[in-house]
Design a protein that fits this description.
Layout lengths: L2 H19 L6 H4 L2 H4 L3 E8 L16 E8 L7 E8 L5 E8 L7 E6 L8 E9 L2 E10 L2 H5 L3
Antiparallel strand pairs: 1-2, 2-5, 3-4, 3-6, 6-7
Length: 152
Amino acid sequence: MSAQRLATALLSAGLLVLATACRPASTDEATSSPQAAEPLRVAEIIAGPPGAAASPRPATPTDPVEIVLRTAGHAAAGSALEVKLIALADGQTVGAETVRLEAGGSEEHIVRFEREAPWTPGRYLVEVTLDGNLAGHQELEIHPAELATGPE
């Protein structure tokens, strides 16, 4: 083999190695779902009587309290959302519920607090933690029944 052919062969091999080394990384990451890369977060908290997410209305002492949690992002299997309902008048936790999440599960979670005795009218705080870290909060006011229904 002549020196010129050998130089051409070595140059071609070198360019092939260089082109392979400089090519972009696998495109699997670029084509994967953006949601899979985004960590789970609580996007919205709606607190009120049942159906308040669709049609807001004041909560009364005899209404169950429904908390609608809308999440976004990717949940790791076994993640937990803990929802606490705290009476702001005295700081007492009057309800607590834990929702275990499944990977790729629902993006809307509903927690319902009911009592045999009526709720005490006043302000309450809904506190939501995700795996032990504060993820959001929302205030809720329980109106006396006569004020919530309005004059007849």
